[in-house]
Amino acid sequence: MADLQKKATRESYGEALAELGEKYDNLYVFDADLAAATKTGIFKKKFPERHFDCGIAESNMMGVAAGMAATGKIPFASTFAMFAAGRAFEQVRNSIGYPHLNVKIGATHAGISVGEDGATHQCNEDIALMRTIPGMVVINPADDVEAKAAVEAAVKYEGPVYMRFGRLAAPIFNDPATYKFEIGKGITLRDGKDITIVATGLMVYEAIQAAETLAAEGIDAGVINIHTIKPIDEELIAAAAAKTGLLLTVEEHSVIGGLGSAVADVLASKQPAKLVKIGVNDEFGHSGPAVELLKQYGLCAENIVAKAKAALGK
Amino acid sequence: MDETLKKQLEITATKIRLGIIEGVFNAKSGHPGGSLSIADLMTYLYFAKMNVYPDKPDEPQRDRLVLSKGHTAPALYSTLAEKGFFPKEELKSLRHIGALLQGHPCITIPGVDMSSGSLGQGISVACGMALSGKLSNDTYKVYTVLGDGEIEEGQVWEAAMFAAHYKLDNLVAVVDNNGLQIDGKIEDVMSPYPIVEKFEAFGWHAITCDAHDFDSIEAAFDEAEKISGQPVVIVQKSIKGKGVSYMENNVSWHGAAPNKEQYDQAVAELTAHLKELEG
């Protein structure tokens, strides 16, 4: 698997928009002076008359998108996760979430893999923030294939959707010929009886690699890809908990309020089991090359292996 | 304005004011001051200006109104009830548990085009609706009503920039300049003045009017009709609490409900005014 092609999911997002723009003539894209970075510029090149720059004014952009949706259009509002979920949180809550409008939020540059820009731009809180909004769908795709499928699913879905994309090129491990995306349905990538690794986004491929390493050491680890954090696939998680009795969540997000917390909620109410969470602990990120940062924060296969073994007492 | 129409609007506005008092009194909370200051504006818009259809509230080509100063929902609700979007009886259960009428506008209420109440957000939504209309060559107009205190919110100016940049000439924003916000006079709390010049500097066509004179209101909207290539703001000079003597220009009525005695007095005053108008 070492020779997998790589692509940043933000790139997949831009390409998906450009493709879907052909099929959906009521699809409009809004950006806040970041079209080159969020990759909505790819859509803009093809459909300049359906791409609107809002300038550096994210709060207004969310409201504008709400107004577009209230009048029958399908607006995508794009900016960095920090500004989409962070700065404009209340606009997303009150102008999009409360009236349950059909706005799609494409948030790029999520997590610490933003890299050199450092803590101000590394959003590790967006999943936590967005999943508290009633009726909001929260999706965190793992690779190019999944990201494109997620964008299409979001267009077909009626209601607000928050999509999280990354800046760093991610290995494309899903097969476009067989891959199927369904909002709210997790994907079992590997069965295992000793421990289940539940991963999302950029961490899914790390989890797959970790499971291979663990297998070589005689530990049978299952891997589940949770691309939709809300609504979460309770059934799949409960079944995994019943089977292995030990879950390990991995996310490029704070351990507070993200995938790990969502899984903990399921375990507490449906199927009690031991849970170990890997994510960004209660601290800010800092500058550095993305891959080195991921390793430093333990967001890598090696740390998943170490934590899994420790949890199993091996 | 035609004298018959003017008389009719004055009668309707008084009924709407009675509905506002009814709602806030029964809710035992709410915002009567700023509701009363926009009662004439709401009357003009819904009874002389906007294309709206109480029997088909979701008609795609209807004109839209986003009440950006959403706390004055009683004015919107009383107007919609008077227009026939829902029974006037609903005003009596405003803010009650399980009631149709929420404390702030909610999109699921017949005739309400957008949920609002968190200040500064409505104007952005109105911009989105206006842009959407232009993109589809729709004929509808979009109106949004802001408080003069509300324009202290930075988002208002983000939206102001956006509307001018995209030449949203199907958008009319009204700033209800009653001069008072919760903590006192707007110029003492955080002056938004000069309002007209600020909007002009942001690329808007600005008009002023007397908020309690239908001739003046009509003249402002007639002028707004003629403007193309830029959004229009109407800054209406109003009296907070207008129509209820003890509430007028008194900031303590921004967000307080009258007690029974005060309610009776307000109803008596407005009813007397109504009788006078109806001759």
Detailed description of the structure:
The relative contact order of chain A is 0.13. Chain A has a seven-stranded mixed sheet, with helices on both faces. The longest helix of chain A has 15 residues, at 9-23. Chain A has 13 helices and 14 strands. In chain A, strand 6, helix 8 (144-156) and strand 7 form a beta-alpha-beta unit. Chain A is α/β, with parallel strands linked by helices. By secondary structure, chain B is an alpha/beta fold. Chain B has one domain: Rossmann fold (3-Layer(aba) Sandwich). Chain B is built from ten helices and seven strands. Chain B has helices at 3-27, 32-37, 39-49, 73-83, 122-135, 154-165, 186-190, 195-201, 214-225, 260-278, and strands at residues 64-67, 142-147, 171-177, 180-181, 184-185, 205-210, 232-237. In chain B, the strands form two sheets. A five-stranded parallel sheet of chain B has the order 1-2-3-7-6, with helices on both faces. Chain B is globular, with a radius of gyration of 17 Å. The two termini of chain B are 20 Å apart. Chains A and B meet through helix 4 and helix 6 of A and helix 5 and helix 6 of B.
